[in-house]
Amino acid sequence: MSCLGWFKRRRSRSGGIVVVVGEARGAGAGVGVGPRDHDDDDHHTTASAVSTSRSDDSGAVRPVSKSAGSAGSSQLSQRSISSLYEERGHGQLRVFDYEELQGATAEFSRAQKLGEGGFGSVYKGFIRAADGKGDRVPVAVKKLNQRGMQGHKQWLAEVQFLGVLEHPNLVKLLGYCAVDSERGAQRLLVYEFMPNKSLEDHLFRRANPPLSWNRRLQVILGAAEGLAYLHEGVEVQVIYRDFKTSNILLDKDFRAKLSDFGLAREGPTGANTHVSTAVVGTQGYAAPEYIDSGHLTAKSDVWSFGVVLYEILTGRRSLDRNKPAAEQKLLEWVVQFPPDSRNFRVIMDPRLRGEYSVKAAREIAKLADSCLLKNAKERPTMSEVVEVLRRAVQAHAEPDNRTPGGPGAKGKKADAAAPSRR
Ligand SMILES: Nc1ncnc2c1ncn2[C@@H]1O[C@H](COP(=O)(O)OP(=O)(O)OP(=O)(O)O)[C@@H](O)[C@H]1O
Ligand SMILES: [Mg+2]
């Protein structure tokens, strides 16, 4: 059943629109802060959107209780993120004073600002260990927009998911801060600092040198491993819901780390095939069946992964309003240049200067196409995606024209070395 919900829009730097529909997730115990009752804020305009909802989208913040089984019989899920968080998450996170983070970021000064997203701003800061000893270490402090329950929900979800999840390809949450005073509520998150910012910064910002072919493959493989862990490696399946280049952060060695779990959601349990939810995410990345029905599965993330694969190949954003009309929507544009066609190379990022393996690029485009199948069930799982990417990295990490005798070349040197036709 669908009902009229609401969503918030912001114009992102990419010209895309972040759409956030009011919803709550089943979480909330443990960090000791209750929800507030208004959820719009002045960075966003409000509009109506069609969404489906069920009991756990009601707005209440409470421990997860999911229905399992198609006959409607209700039973508690074996595990939930909130129960895992209670068990082992919150002991590991440091609780910061507001003043401590204020001092660490030079009062949240503009000079310290690393970026701004849909829910708040991120600042670089320096903190000491909890015992006050040792050198100060760099951190990233996200200060959520002050007004609005949506900010609180994003914050709460992030604390609970990242308090429980642990993987080399997920950003590490060090701690949080929550204060409610007459001057308003403050919600902050403190992460390990990622010196190389995000994949978005490197792929689309001309100020940064272009990412090499090898590095693109390594980054997307790391991101795929992070997503596979969320889908298949945790007691509770986690659907990420916001897979995009700005949420793939890069450490000092350019290792990919997924960030932003504010929209993450527990996957279906028991006989359920999907979770029904209000539609949230970023335009240009959300799977069509999810937009149409609000039915969320891990395969919605696989779709978003397919979109990012094409962004990595082309160096183009999934949605770019500055391009001619026929090229604004990346997926509609690339479909004219299928992986096995003669003119496939037209889509490749000119910033690669032809230094890539055409064979691997075609394989990756085919993989992207399988992630972008209309029928969600036919899309590969993320562990299958990881396998394909691993093989591509092993065989073709070097550009063809750099390895004339290497495994990626195999007599295709002339083809590979030819510059792309744009
Ligand atoms: N841990 C971190 N270390 C270094 N920089 C970070 C870190 N987290 C975020 N940033 C920087 O801050 C920017 C803003 O992040 P944020 O997650 O708030 O917004 P976004 O990803 O651009 O958009 P959205 O709100 O839609 O996710 C990022 O693009 C990144 O450059
Ligand atoms: Mg982000």
UniProtKB/TrEMBL annotation:
Recorded E.C. number(s)? 2.7.11.1
Q: Name one Pfam family in it.
A: PK_Tyr_Ser-Thr
The protein's GO terms of the molecular function aspect are: ATP binding; protein serine/threonine kinase activity
- Binding positions for ATP? K143
* SUPFAM superfamilies, sorted: Protein kinase-like (PK-like)
Q: Which residues cross the membrane?
A: none
Enumerate composition-biased segments (Low complexity).
Answer: 65-75
Keywords in alphabetical order, please. Answer: ATP-binding, Kinase, Nucleotide-binding, Serine/threonine-protein kinase, Transferase
Top-level EC class: transferase
Keyword Nucleotide-binding in record: yes
| UniProt cross-references to Gene3D superfamilies, sorted A to Z | Phosphorylase Kinase, domain 1 (3.30.200.20), Transferase(Phosphotransferase) domain 1 (1.10.510.10)
Where are the compositionally biased (Basic and acidic residues) regions?
Answer: 35-45
- Catalysed reaction, written as an equation: L-seryl-[protein] + ATP = O-phospho-L-seryl-[protein] + ADP + H(+); L-threonyl-[protein] + ATP = O-phospho-L-threonyl-[protein] + ADP + H(+)
Residue ranges for the region (Disordered) are 28-75, 392-422
Q: Kindly give the InterPro entries that the UniProt entry links to this protein.
A: Kinase-like_dom_sf (IPR011009), Plant_Ser_Thr_Prot_Kinase (IPR050823), Prot_kinase_dom (IPR000719), Protein_kinase_ATP_BS (IPR017441), Ser-Thr/Tyr_kinase_cat_dom (IPR001245), Ser/Thr_kinase_AS (IPR008271)
Q: Which segments constitute the Protein kinase domain?
A: 108-393
Q: What PANTHER family does this protein's entry cite?
A: OS01G0588500 PROTEIN-RELATED
As for family, the record states: Belongs to the protein kinase superfamily.
For this entry, the protein name equals non-specific serine/threonine protein kinase
Which species?
Miscanthus lutarioriparius
